User: What shape does this take?
Amino acid sequence: MHAQSQKNSQSFILMDKIKQYYQSYAYQLSVISRFFAAIVGGYVFTSVFTALLSLILPLKKSDAVLLSISLTIFVYSCVFIWVFAVKSLKTIWITILLTSSACGLSIALLKGWL
Amino acid sequence: MKESFFRSMTWMHTWVGLLVCWLLYLIFFAGTISFFRDEVTLWNQPALHNAQAPQERISLQRQQIIAGVDYLKTAAPESNRWGIYLPQERESQLIYAYEKPRPEGKRFGGWQEHYINPKTGESLQQPRETKGGNFFYRLHFDLHYIDVRTARWIVCFASLFMLVALISGVVIHKRIFKDMFSFRKNKGSRSWLDSHNVSSVLALPFHIMITYTGLITLIFMLFPYPAMTAYEDGIRGLFNDVTPTNVRTKSSDEPAPLTAVESVLDQVYTNWPNADLTQFAIKDPNKASATITVRASTGTHVRDQTPTLLFNGVDGSLIAKSVDEFSSTEVFYDSLTALHTGRLANPLLRWLYFLCGVAGCVMIATGCIMWAKRIRERMKKDQRPSFGLKLVEGLNLATLMGLPLATSVFFLANRLLPINMIERADKEILAFFVTWLAVALFALFKRAKQQWILLAWVNSIACISIPIVNALTTNGNIISYLLNGQWALFSFDLVCLISAVLFIVQVKKLRTHRQASVSNVRPSRVAKNKLREQSA
Amino acid sequence: MSELLQFSLCLLAFNCFALAKFNHYRDVFKVRPTQKQSNQFVIAAWISILLSLVLSVVEHKGYGGLLFCGYMALSVLLLMIFYSFKASWVKFMSVINITTIFLSGLYISVF
Assistant: This one.
């Protein structure tokens, strides 16, 4: 009985340690995830968004491409700042993934890939 | 991610800025010098110092082209490419060039150039082998030793961080415009903050413009996707659509006589009366596939695409012509690139660009110094500096003081290395990087105020020695440049001297502040000086 | 000459913006500005800066806009130096500035 409680408390200590470990690195992890979302997520979103833009802008083909190309950096920096402005990481990832796939899907439909 | 929008923007500004500030300093520093690329190249080629564009520069162009084609016909009838580069306001020599025979397996054999003084028509001595201002131009986005593509990706991301830092900087300094003209002297990190703010606010439109347009110049590498979705053959399809003169012809070896240059020129001047031509290039001369490309200057129009005419080289007919009237989107896109390169700028605007570029360097330099100062100020007396702080301080010293010194050494090497040395241009560049490496190693061991003072002295001596060495090794000196009105060379030497003075000011400031143990404002100045000196 | 006019207008504008600020006014004139004075300075500043912008853009189109950005940078730099290190010289500088505007304006209208 005595030994059991000791074992129990030991595993508690282990759990606690893991938790502590996670907590002490949670901040770093969230920062890394945020930078990743800003750089890679922002890049992916900007790519599909501007690609879609170049298809749907009601201009001559070359004009539509040039205009969407000129706007890429603007879009990218807006997304970047938005990622750092929003509190919840979950919201960020979900929004980026959803909007990017929506844009990607519309491109696929417009180009008739599906 | 922090409690408030304001706090998270501050956090982001600090860390995004700190991550890339040294690279950004390099990019801004090299870019600022590149605004005077042609002038720096001229300074590096003393053999061309005496060439001056004649008053009636434009009206002579027709004759220069005809003479050039005659020269090339006898000098290199077998060559694959001929080029005639006409004197411009910033590059006053006339150049007849042809491609040297291609070595086995190479696609290009390199240019053999023949320089001519357009005023007298006499040939000029072959200038020494140097990269000159082009070295800084390439360094600005190719970072020299790294593979070009990787380097450009790195530069792109650094610029993106810069843009983000700029926007968040405006957000966090709501009071930025209120305190625009005040500058608190000798107040430790407060003064650094003020110089950071002033240098960013005073050229804020420039900073945002130059960062945004800089990214636009590399946009086809960064975001090829819009073009890839809209065009079957991607970027090439877009280019063919936008630039009608982008015609590719297959080379053939079948001989055919070159068309009469006069008739081609007649067509050029009917298309563009009073044109200021820059280039007259012939591909595959004396062959059936010969083409002639004629380019004109864009003048001060905010436009990057050069007006171009493409002729068939055998029958002299016009194949393609660049668009005269752009659509509004094309104007928008094209002007972004034109704004960045600043090729349109007249001397006044060029100096203003330069001034803003220097402000950008100061902004970055003060930013990274401020971070280190703040941490130091917050530290307790007996606390040991962390590795991160030591790293930042070391990089600060190595970059902020090392880069200007390396640049001075580059120019000194240009004058002091033997003229006929093998691979001379590479040796100059080696001198640049070896110096920088030496400063970095020095900063590895010690980076206290004493070392800043020492490096400021070394820098000021290097700056002063540039005009002196120039006067000793070439026929001209700063006084003769002033008397002869050679403004490019005169300003170069003058900027070196001004930088030297500014470094001495920095030494003085650092000295007086050492006793008071208050941080000083000057290192930013130093950076400024360096830049100035370089760019002239 | 027209560049000089545009630049001095820009400089005047930022000078007025600075003088509209309580601290800077006190540094230069040693007295407090009234609310009305501050407002007048702000209005004068806006008129002057818009005039400078319009003149540059009318004369050089897009290139003029670029020049104007450069003028702003140079003006703020000059004013920052004056206000931070030599506040007592601001009066003389302002007089010179206004004279330049008149002279260059006169020159342009005559020739």
Summary: Chains A and C do not touch (no CB pair under 8 Å).
